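queue> pop job 88
queue> type: inverse folding (structure -> sequence)
queue> payload:
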């Protein structure tokens, strides 16, 4: 009997671990949008810091991110245990915020990017030139700003993850949410550290001295890495923005059943198209959800702008 009970217990544990692994994979895929945005934002926050201080700054922000998770994870699990009905509204708010943030990012790039870049470069140059300005204080401000941004992005990740495991038992929720929070933090800031040092590594290789095929190949690779670093930053920002609309719009559509039903009807009708109907049936829900995300983000951005105008006049 004891042996049979032990086997049953081990079987139950294996089943739970399988469920946890499956939910963790889904959560990681769903939070990939925030991950891309988190990478781009945090890598950008380190811009302007001297090369020898980049890794210490990344580490300081990473520690702040871990502190954020220590607050957010227990709070999210407590909400799930005490007021589970709040998960769907919080998930919808998180999706709406993702869409808003994506729309703001696009609008900023289209309307203000060059001017903002020039102003930031001027401010940075002035800070370096002014001996009264403490670069340590400058670093602290960058770190504080990055940690504040991380609090928002971490909240999005945890709420999305909690929405996926909302119907599971409490232990599974703890394992999945805590696991995603930890792995995302390690993954994001490990990649941020690699990204911000990519150009330095390329410069090191490009400065290799000597003759021969191997040294020439090192110099060639180093120059390519230096050229690739800014393109990588732009690519991360672009992919992160698209993913925000896809995931945020998907959350809103799944949370509002009439919209989900309409999209399913459209996808079914497109499947009857003679040429490419099968492909259209597969990609239509994603594209339409993304479009819904763009529209929702634009509406929220418009309301926020209107609120700011009205508040400035009072």
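queue> result:
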């Amino acid at each position: 009997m004891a042996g049979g009970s032990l086997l049953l217990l081990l079987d139950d544990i294996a089943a739970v671990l399988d469920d946890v692994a499956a939910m963790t994979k889904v959560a990681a895929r769903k939070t990939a949008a925030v991950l891309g945005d988190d990478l781009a934002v945090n890598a950008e926050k380190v811009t302007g810091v001297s090369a020898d201080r980049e890794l210490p700054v990344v580490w300081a922000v990473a520690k702040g991110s871990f502190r954020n998770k220590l607050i957010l994870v227990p709070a999210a699990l407590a909400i799930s245990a005490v007021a589970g009905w709040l998960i769907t509204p919080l998930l919808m708010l998180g999706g709406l915020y993702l869409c808003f943030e994506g729309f703001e990012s696009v609008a900023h790039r289209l309307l203000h990017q060059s001017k903002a870049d020039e102003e930031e470069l001027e401010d940075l140059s002035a800070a370096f030139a002014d001996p009264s300005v403490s670069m340590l204080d400058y670093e602290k401000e960058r770190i504080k700003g990055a940690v504040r941004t991380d609090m928002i992005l971490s909240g999005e990740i945890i709420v999305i993850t909690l929405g996926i495991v909302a119907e599971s038992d409490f232990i599974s929720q703890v394992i999945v949410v805590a696991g995603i929070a930890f792995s995302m933090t390690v993954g994001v800031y490990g990649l941020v550290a690699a990204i911000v040092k990519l150009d330095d590594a390329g410069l090191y290789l490009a400065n290799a001295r000597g003759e021969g095929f191997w040294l020439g190949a090192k110099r060639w690779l180093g120059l390519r890495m230096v050229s690739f670093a800014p393109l990588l930053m732009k690519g991360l920002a672009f992919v992160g923005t698209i993913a925000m609309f896809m995931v945020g719009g998907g959350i809103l559509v799944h949370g509002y059943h009439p919209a989900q039903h309409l999209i399913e009807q459209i996808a079914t009708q497109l499947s009857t198209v003679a040429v490419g109907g099968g492909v259209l049936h597969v990609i239509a829900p994603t594209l339409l959800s993304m479009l819904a995300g763009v529209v929702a983000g634009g509406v929220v951005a418009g309301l926020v702008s209107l609120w700011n105008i009205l508040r400035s006049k009072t």
